[in-house]
Design goal:
mainly alpha; 0% strand; globular; EC 2.8.2.-; Sulfotransferase; transferase; Sulfotransferase_dom
Length: 67
């Protein structure tokens, strides 16, 4: 899924996908380092997570984030 979203974000150019590692393109939300990287990435951001939906912050559900 991260590869597909990365290609969509880069308008189909595979250069970005090949040059930037997965953990920089879609950092893990549940790690402190991942959260810091995600906040530093330009919008629209790609964020990875394996958290159950019940553990997401309530603000997430009222945001414009796409899941």
């Amino acid at each position: 899924m991260l590869e597909i979203l990365s290609l969509i974000r880069s308008d189909g150019d595979p250069g970005w996908c090949r040059s930037v590692p997965n953990w920089d393109r879609g950092p893990w939300l549940e790690t402190l380092l991942g959260l810091r990287r995600a906040r530093g990435n330009p919008r629209p951001r790609l964020i990875s997570s394996h958290l159950p939906i019940q553990l997401f912050p309530k603000a997430f559900f009222t945001s414009k984030a796409k899941v």
